[in-house]
Amino acid sequence: QKEVEQNSGPLSVPEGAIASLNCTYSDRVSQSFFWYRQYSGKSPELIMSIYSNGDKEDGRFTAQLNKASQYVSLLIRDSQPSDSATYLCAVSRFGNEKLTFGTGTRLTIIP
Amino acid sequence: DTAVSQTPKYLVTQMGNDKSIKCEQNLGHDTMYWYKQDSKKFLKIMFSYNNKELIINETVPNRFSPKSPDKAHLNLHINSLELGDSAVYFCASSRTSGEQFFGPGTRLTVL
After folding, report:
1. Is the pLDDT of residue A95 over 70?
2. Interior CA angle at B15 toward B85 and B91, to 5°?
3. Cα distance between residue B40 and residue B110, in whole Å
4. How far apart (Å, rounded) are the C-alpha atoms in residues B69 and A4?
5. CB-CB under 8 Å, B44 with A97
6. B72: pLDDT confidence band, cut at 50, 70 and 90?
């Protein structure tokens, strides 16, 4: 079982719709959860971090965490073509600097 | 600009050569990292330094040697380069146990 699992996609979503990206993790002592966006040929860019169960909203982005189900998701509302990228889920233990990444989900927003 | 910077951006070299990649951050962070992103885009940690002290050393060949002269700089030296070392190498930095921010990457091609 991979430590952090994501559907590789591609996930195609019409412009203006909600894009839903999912991630599951295997390490029960994971405490910190991150979503990074990576455009082709560019570096990962942090877009959301979440540490507690529930929802965290930032603009068009909402991260959702359920530690009991070992599940974290990212919702992108009003999807724009500029949201087309690979989204990486990353997880770390409390007090441990190591980030473990999923393989990423490639998202395409269709105009 | 406050950022994580890396040099060089591209590195093309022959098998068996030795090369170095440099990283600098002016964000005031005390932890720096090296990640490797392979051809399948999987991002995996290699090393981490906190205040010049090595705190993460994943299973990486001894040919890879990181050095941190101070907490704003982290270099990566690679001896006897092999074809399989071809990848994009990202430097990142964070406050202790904080969100990690990535540099632009160094694309290494070994011929």
Report:
1. no
2. 35
3. 17
4. 33
5. no
6. very high
User: Which of B93, B9, B47, B44 has the alpha carbon at shortest distance from A88?
Assistant: B44
CA distance A71 to A85: 21
Closest among B101, B109, B107, B110 to B24, alpha carbons compared = B101
C-beta atoms of B31 and A99 within 8 A: no
What's the one-letter identity of residue A62? T
Of B42, B97, B104, the CB nearest to A43: B104
Task: Check CB contact of A109 with chain B, cutoff 8 Å.
Answer: no
**Are A103 and B42 within 8 A, CB to CB?**
yes
DSSP label of B95: S
Instruction: Give the residue from chain B lying closest to A103, CA to CA.
Output: B42
In chain B, residues with a C-beta closer than 8 Å to the C-beta of A46 are 99-101
Residue with tokens 């092999």: B82
